[in-house]
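Structure tokens please, single chain.
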Amino acid sequence: MAHEPQPYPLDALDAEAVRTWSSLALAALGRAREDIDAINVYPVADADTGTNLYLTAESADRELGEAFAGVTDGTAEASLPRAVRAFAHGALIGARGNSGTILAQLLRGVADVLGDEPAGRGPASLLAQALDRAAEEAYQAVAHPVEGTMLTVAAAAAQAAVIAEADAGTAADVARAAYDGARAALERTPGQLAVLGRAGVVDAGGCGLVAVLGALWQALSGQVPAPEPVRGRAVSVPRPPEPCAQEGGGPGYEVVYLLEASEAAVGGLRTRLDRLGDSLVVVGGDELWNVHVHVDDPGAAVEAGVVAGRPYRIRITHFGDERRRARGERVQRAVVAVVQGEGLARLCEEAGATTVLARPDGPPAVAELAAAVRRAHAREVVLLPNDTELRAVAAAAAEQARADGVRVAVIPTRSEVQGLAALAVHDADGTFDEDVVAMTAAAGATRYGELAVAERQSFTSAGICQAGDVLGLIDGDVAVIGQGLPETAEAVLARMLGSGGELVTLVLGPEVPDALAERLEAYVQHGHLAVDTVTYRGGRWSAPLLIGVE
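Here you go.
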């Protein structure tokens, strides 16, 4: 349930003020979302900056709400440091796009100051210092800062806040000064960045930051910022004639992932990614980072993350397809994947696929798959059933789509991990036949395992199992019958890696603790030094554990 902002002025910079700020910022970005999307021309004109900022703020607000849930049940204390750290952490793990990643770093800068709550400092002084630190850290996080962007707006807000604090203002005065400074800086952005000037719009990310700062002022003062039209909202924003064209040309893919790595390793990662592409932003700290970069070779960007540490929640977006869909045009090629588990659905969608969620109450019907193919809005579609029992359904859906003039190929994937392997090599820019062959080969080269719990006594290919036994399946057949999930998983891995492998993919079910992934990763590293491991969360309705070995 959403937090209801306080209807009266807040007198202190405290945990409740942070919670109110979060709720108001989310609401403000929700109202401005479409307007901000419409003026998004830099760094890529893909009409998603407002959406990315909103989703980032939504993640931050959700994390903050969970922190306050602990206060309600008596397991945690409602303190300013706890609130701002939860706020920043939520933004970090949910940051979307270039703008969302920068917003996450801005909030981390705020948390780096307010999270310590130093003695002898008043709220106004703390807030001014926090906004100043936020702008400084955001500039440091961007590999090649550009003026006329969200960074410029953040710097102007920080400078105005410091001046207001020096004039002995209150925390609300400091917030108002930051808001006014940001608004003035935003109006100047078309004169600082040529692409904005030509389009007749202000910077989209900066526009979102103004909304966030207006929410901060409202949270501390109780006064509601006057609604302002988004400059350029009514004009037609020029779109590049080529699918992947950007200002001055640019890469065709956006790659985003969370990374567990040391600060020293991230330094090397920045250097490698900077050579691969542009729009590089790496934010975070304390061995958890959010990595954002635009590249032509998304695989190389992910591999650089593997070298540095453990990347997960990997999202790869093809700019050309996103732009064409936004304009209601057909894209050349799309992937439709059937998955069991909401987390897997999000993972595949972030990789650019259209998904169909297979729920426990029954598999999707032919009509549902055919509708997903139409929803992909493409001339060519690669269909991943990800289940042996769905191959006939997928074939029937493909025949319906072919009757509508869509070229469809069904790849016989038997598990979601095979589907993930196929998605990883999907090349929308290659020929259809080459793409299908490569995806089929990747799926076929991936052995798949699954852990399940026996519901009753039965005969299996590994012997008789009892209700409650853990079953380890390899390529669809029961290979191991065990008592515990960790031991059975290790036994399955041992068999699957017995014939070699380069990459292990683990997909954890909703009730499985992170400790199991850590144990299995250590198990793989101990016995197979040359094998990498990646871990994902399958989410609701997914199996307890899926294993893929490529």
